[in-house]
Amino acid sequence: MVGVFEDFVYGREFVSADGINVVLEFSARVGDKELKGIDMIRFDEQGCIVDFEVMIRPFNSLQALGEEMGKRLGQVLPAYKAAKPAA
User: Fold this and answer.
1) pLDDT value at position 27?
2) CA 43 to CA 22: how far, in whole Å?
3) Is 28 exposed, middle or buried (0-12, 13-18, 19+ CB in 10 A)?
4) What are phi and psi of 41, to 5 degrees?
5) Is residue 1 part of a domain?
6) Which of 8, 11, 21, 73 has its CA at a distance of 20 to 30 angstroms from the CA of residue 38?
7) Whole-prediction pTM value?
8) What is the pLDDT of residue 2?
């Protein structure tokens, strides 16, 4: 997502009492669309990330993000698929 988000800023953070779950609120822009989102992160006992989920709103900003990521991945995905060994 580097270079896709503009003016990316983390705001609030919420940490569970046991420190295993963290939610980070962020805001950014994609083109002319403003967005808000959260990163929901779960850690194991060793401090390694075991789950990472991102939620973004409003829907039209999520659509703009998808379109921009599609443009960028569309250029590299065919080469990636060609290099991937068959299962």
Assistant:
1) 96
2) 8
3) buried
4) -125, 135
5) no
6) 73
7) 0.76
8) 57
